Fold each of these.
Amino acid sequence: MDLAQYMDQRARLVNEALDRYTSAGREEDCLKPVLEGIPPVLLEAMRYSLLAGGKRLRPLLVMAAAELWGLTPEKVMPTACALEMIHTYSLIHDDLPCMDDDDLRRGRPTNHKVYGEAVATLAGDALLTMAFELLALQSRVEGSLPERVTRVVAEMAAAAGAAGMVGGQVEDLLWEEKDAPPEQLERIHLLKTGALFRAALRCGAILGGAAAPEIAALDRYAYHFGLAFQIQDDVLDVVGDVAKMGKAVGSDARQSKSTYVSHFGLEGARQMAREHVAAAQEALAPFGERGRVLAALAQFVIDREG
Amino acid sequence: MDLAQYMDQRARLVNEALDRYTSAGREEDCLKPVLEGIPPVLLEAMRYSLLAGGKRLRPLLVMAAAELWGLTPEKVMPTACALEMIHTYSLIHDDLPCMDDDDLRRGRPTNHKVYGEAVATLAGDALLTMAFELLALQSRVEGSLPERVTRVVAEMAAAAGAAGMVGGQVEDLLWEEKDAPPEQLERIHLLKTGALFRAALRCGAILGGAAAPEIAALDRYAYHFGLAFQIQDDVLDVVGDVAKMGKAVGSDARQSKSTYVSHFGLEGARQMAREHVAAAQEALAPFGERGRVLAALAQFVIDREG
């Protein structure tokens, strides 16, 4: 299969949907969040970060998981886009001066550099909230079962919240400037980025009607996928190209941050990433030929340059 | 009826539930958010603001509305507590230095004064996210219909987000230090506080199985209830007692903030508040004797001293 073409086509569908969900004036479409009354500067700030591009990896994982049970991308689009909104809100808040204090994101000034801290904080809050509105609207998609949708809402909230992504960000802050041992590093990444990857896969599967053993297989895939992703991030921070990354490189070393490369060396980290990709692909065995998209996506994680 | 006793008893139920939902170690209770793995400082920061007291007015409105259809408080407790979590997150974020920069809330130092800006921001994010987890868990309460729960999630997200409460906070910031005309003042309050009161009532009613005309009646009640509440807030900022308010008084005047008192004078504002309470009570006509709790709650809004 041509993964690049597959990813481009899916990312375009996601971009179109994200634009549609946050554009006023198409009231014939009942499947969209309430937009009436949103202060223009707030909607602009939300869209500034939401439509800034990116690979749309989390929505892709929702769609790829749902596809295992024969659902087309359109059938899970609200859930897929909700994931991207949650991811985007987390980037806006992580970039704030009181957090990582970053100026550049996806090649452009960060949200608070453009709109100020107050509006940036609120744009993040609004994206997180709209994500749950979209998750609820998933139940209006023909064929969606409301009991699956409530399960998806619970899964997503648990993954994005204090016991997941937000907790990971707190631990990341607590270990800043300390030398986090590898186990702690893994824990931070499993929470901070892994939880959302896992939720993407689980929610796609839940909407598709997956059984418990199938969800467990996707959990194993997600575990290895997430770690491979993070290790490759650490590798790219050393060897990456600013233009392809859309953000500064070498920042981990400058901040003396504990990373997989600082612990295991460049080649050691690369080897670990390769092993995680192989383990992720093995976890797909129960799906046979149907698992080929997810297998290719795992390989992409370490082949990517940005 | 003895409203004070009713309110105390309900607030106690809410406080117990909020404590239970955020306390580890009672795993027999499936009806609670995922707590395992939450960094202790984050859970502490969340509980610091969540369990700081307050009248629990929003949960009370959920319960009072649900009661119109015969539901006991226990039957809507996850939804009632979710409202309080959303309200609490909004207070934490509003108090941040980049927003209103407040040091005191409910008689204690604000969240960021105790835990720092980064953890306070994340504690707010986590409370907002946990609110949606609780809303989803509402579907596990015996007798809850999942299609009503997905509707509640959509209602709550719309009310709390960019087209509701968050939008109101943005407009409040935009009009800061400008002399907002009365229409704009009303708009800010309807978004910033009114939207959540309205959602509380609507969601209690939806869980109870209300029909559209009944929800419309509660919308009218909510409109007047919310404005009476805000006007009384403005009145109390002039005549209130610091000890009973748990926050500084006179801050509106010091900041030359446009308020109902600055526009209409103290007696003018009081008269408007009384008229809104009467209109709120009139809106309850379709419920007859069943509406007495909500009628008393509307009266409480202007009788309160904090």
Amino acid sequence: MLISQVATPQSIPRKVVDAITPQNTIGAVNQSNGALDINTLFAPIRPGLRLVESKLRDVDSAIFAPLAEAFVNLIGSGGKRLRPALALLSAEFNGSMQNAPHYSTVIALAASVEMLHTATLVHDDVIDGALLRRGAPTLNARWNGISTVLAGNYLFGTAAHFSAETQNMRVIALFSDTLRVIVDGELRQLKDRHNFMQKRENYYQRIYAKTASLFCAATQGAAILSQLPEERIADLNQFGYNFGMAFQIIDDILDFTGDDATLGKPAGSDLRQGTLTLPFFHYLQQHPDARSVIAALEDAQIEADDGNAAVWDEAVNLLVRDLRNSPAIEAAREEARTFLRRAVDNLAALPDNVYRHSLFGLCEYAVKRTY
Amino acid sequence: MLISQVATPQSIPRKVVDAITPQNTIGAVNQSNGALDINTLFAPIRPGLRLVESKLRDVDSAIFAPLAEAFVNLIGSGGKRLRPALALLSAEFNGSMQNAPHYSTVIALAASVEMLHTATLVHDDVIDGALLRRGAPTLNARWNGISTVLAGNYLFGTAAHFSAETQNMRVIALFSDTLRVIVDGELRQLKDRHNFMQKRENYYQRIYAKTASLFCAATQGAAILSQLPEERIADLNQFGYNFGMAFQIIDDILDFTGDDATLGKPAGSDLRQGTLTLPFFHYLQQHPDARSVIAALEDAQIEADDGNAAVWDEAVNLLVRDLRNSPAIEAAREEARTFLRRAVDNLAALPDNVYRHSLFGLCEYAVKRTY
């Protein structure tokens, strides 16, 4: 379905549609009104988020107790609890779940999704050898790689435990399938590194696996637990997909346009690791001599493999400078907006309540966020 | 309950009780009759084992397809499929599960348990940096550590997926709890390495986490799926515990008494890595000057930390030579026999059928095995 064919539902606030338009630019969050403040958007589910928070911090292991503080810090440092919030919001479209006796199943889902996310972050630290994540020193820098692998495994086990607490077979199956999709995507990303001839399709597959699949698990899982009809479950699944794709594309744009201080890592870090993201694909497409761009990167990579890392760094720095001032950024942004317009459309048939208002707000927030 | 208080049930074959007695020695498997052959013991559940095998080899990922062969080889090379067999045998005490329409749930449990075991083996390769496991080159030697971590994660995801296929909430919860227990134990083992002052209790905790917990998941899970009464579920859980403890103790004895060829690794490899096992604790207890033994090891370890690995190796070689000719081996063996006698007792109230006969046979096999 083309985005041009999607009629904007009457009930969707004009402001949201306006926000997701080309004239708006990412980076406008400071000029935004209160409605864009994420705390305001999360207000209707604040009690649920507190329950999730307490569940996440209850690490049930004497031996992992010393690690618990590290987990909590890692999870807490700038972590927006976006995934749990998506689950809690998505659960509120079939009567009030917050006041239902089985609200604990939604809390379990939300905690499961966030714990799975955290587990993959912990293992990503091993994989990336990254020094900083979310601005805080990574676990890996403080612990050795072995403990980090085990810590990640323990979190996987805890995530699986939480998912079992949903007491819903379909949600449990969704959880284990999502875990496999995520890991599959991580290996794809690893194999595709420094492959400058890869197709753009690989990128979409990767960000689905890495980000959108877990957003889907949060929104679809909550829809299942709240016993919505199948059509609405599908809507919320699609919302998770489109919102997740947009969210990751914007993340990948910010990796080029952000500065070191807000990113907590040097700009262009994905490319520096050889991971190609959407702005790069647009840059290549728009470049009058894409072959020379690729050849230069490949040559620099060969130099780096021979021990001359400075050549690679310099090649990346040059490309990042050129790319962030090119139309590639705007082209990638427009793709994110397209996904967000679809996400907004996916909510059209759901009841018009404060929770839907918050999901609309998150779409707006996603476009405008700067970190 | 003391072992001396356990009455040997009338229906338990005399041969089994005889086998688990001090006059028998580990290493007698070559003198054994056909009843001890593991293929004979597994015969009643052969069709189920074939279904498990095919399930294990069906790796559902294009990107992991190149790894699939490596997994299959790792899993298959000498792997006895003991854990799936325990599940399949334990499922047959409430009417025939093999012919029941929901036998697939037992197959899913058996595959889940073996896949979880394999996932931990894969990560152990990263942790140990071991060169050989089960006689075949480890994944880690062929792939880099990163791919190995991800491969392990994918197997965890697949194990979780299989456990969800049991469609039984209690079994699913048992699975995720077992995963956490195993990982918790791995970190304990890591922290306890080279701590020569640790209590023997630490050892029992470790081998429960490492081995017995998964045996319990196999036997208890199958009992749950076959809808046995709670008392019999508890019996099979206890059987898994006692059999698993004995199995790991015998493994730890063989690490001292075996030769390099049958072990696929140098004798005394646990101690060489700083992991203390039951024979070592008995050796210390029996030694007239335990303090000097510990002091010598600690000194050698300090030398090794200073880069003089040969000193540590020599200290271990000396100790292994002394220990394998000491009464410590027999003392550890007697503990294994005690666990096995309890395991046999746990089966007393179960129906006397070919499956129980095979479980008895496995207890006998456990004492006599040489690898």
